[in-house]
Amino acid sequence: MKFYNLLIKYRLWIGLALIALGIYVNYSASFWPSFPLYLVGVILIFGHFFFGPLRLIQEYMESGDMDGAEKVINSIKFPSLLYKPIRSVYYTLRGNIAMMKQDFDGAEKMMKKGLDLGMPMKEAEGASLLQMGMISMQKNDIKQAENYIRSALRKGLPDKENEAAAYLQMCSIMMNKREFRAAKDFFRKAKACKPTTPQIVDQIKQIEKYITRMPG
Fold it and tell me: 187 and 167 in contact (C-beta within 8 Å)?
């Protein structure tokens, strides 16, 4: 696995070196001995631009090393050459990083690009729509936030933690709109997901203190 990650990281330079070596072998001997070097070199260079270092980005994201993830993302100089589903994930990851930096306009722009390209899985599309909804909440655009989060729930979300987060956001929106019966319904759905993420659990505890006193 470590070897594969190193190959992904340096495959452009390895590919260029193999082609240079192929040119030397072609010059000093003949074409056919150099052909395998040309072939492997072209495949590595093609893979660098077509697939990108997505695997490396994923590992940094999973370990919480956002600086490392951003460094890898910034190394992609020609995102338009990436395979379409990978390009979609690339823009989504850039949106996630912008969101963590509180750059909500930048995050929205990147997430929209990812959504416009289409997500490889419906759950991934739902997660992106949920994040778009949260961005709209941060920008105080409640109407747009509701549209995004409802769309996210329709598309489906990858796990119960995301579902609980979506239902809590809808609960907050309904309370803001003074639609208390709907707010209570979304709150019950959030609790039924049995989330374990500390932030979500804390939100449930905070809302529970006063939601029972609401009319409806």
Answer: yes
CB 167 within 8 A of CB 189: yes
With CA atoms as reference, report the closest residue to 77 among 96, 97, 109, 53.
53
Read off the pLDDT of residues 15-57 as tens digits, 9 standing for 90 and up: 999 999 999 999 999 899 999 999 999 999 999 999 999 888 8
User: Which of 132-141 are b and which e, b meaning 16 or more Cβ less than 10 Å from the residue's Cβ?
Assistant: bbbbbbeeee
Residue 101, classed as helix, strand or coil, is coil
What is the rounded distance in angstroms from the CA atom of residue 166 to the CA atom of residue 150? 8
DSSP state for residue 156 in the 8-state scheme: -
144, burial (CB in 10 Å: exposed 0-12, middle 13-18, buried 19+): middle
- Give the distance, in angstroms, between the CA of residue 181 and the centroid of all CA atoms in the same chain: 33
The whole-angstrom separation of Cα 9 and Cα 52 is 9
Cβ-contact 80, 30 below 8 angstroms: no
Q: Which two tokens stand for residue 24?
A: 């030397």
pTM over 0.85: no
